[in-house]
Amino acid sequence: MKDYKPMDLKKVKTYPIKKRKNKVGIHDFARVSRKGEGFSKFISSLPDILAARDFREVADAVVHAREQGRPVVMAMGAHVIKCGLSPVIIHLIRKDVVTAVAMNGAGSIHDYEIALIGGSSEDVEEEIRTGRFGMVDETGRDIMDALSLGVPRGWGYGESLGRYILSKKPPHHQYSILSASAKKKIPATVHAALGADIIHMHPAMDGALMGQASFTDFRLLCSVVADLGRGGVWMNIGSAVILPEVFLKALSVARNLGHDVSDFVTVNLDMIQHYRPRENVVRRPTRQGGRGYALTGHHEIMIPLLARAILEKLESSPKE
Fold this sequence. Notes:
- By secondary structure, the protein is an alpha/beta fold.
- It is about 50% helix and about 10% strand.
């Protein structure tokens, strides 16, 4: 066996620190925000490092997309709505920042229940013991009613429910993202995983009808995704599985049919960075050109901050 001895370091070659490349310098440091400074000044005071840099670049990408007439799509899980962010998202829709919306089935349920009664999200632990979990009547009955009216007209799940809320005007309809999308006439798609949502247990449930509605929305989303190239932005917010998978398939369809979906920006915003959003949103889609970002934080803090940063930049733009 070889007899190893401690190495003599006296002959190690060194070089002056001034010749070394550094990833961080004082020009990247944060600036102390002064009392009375506006929000834009606060954002510019953040360090030009890591997530703070990415946050500003995401806001810049959205602003650039809208100034160039490119789409900005917000795909969201139900938790985003449960966190009370509907007013912020609706404002972005009304200000022409968000040009398309996608959500999972649970998102449509929370959106409708909030419009109907001003609340949502039952106590699952309490209700599952009695078999009452998910068994409210109005939610399933009304959503199926909306689909039965919309599907024969060629509408998808999102447009059918959005138009239904617009026409019925439930007490709190102003808090509905789907209704705001229908009013603005932008694509709003709902992607149901049959068996995963409470309305799938309802006596009025029609699997064929819901399948057709959601399939129409998938095809509509394919058209939206096909238009993302040359500066569009796709934001995945709080969906760990369904919407990243739907997005990847829609992107494959678009490219298969000859659309040049490259040079665009993807963003995953969530409290935890999961495998599918990282691979199917941030990394894989942008390898042919573009940039993917991962911003980690609580939705109820990050989304209002990002929305305000975007709006501040747009409102200060000479084109506005």
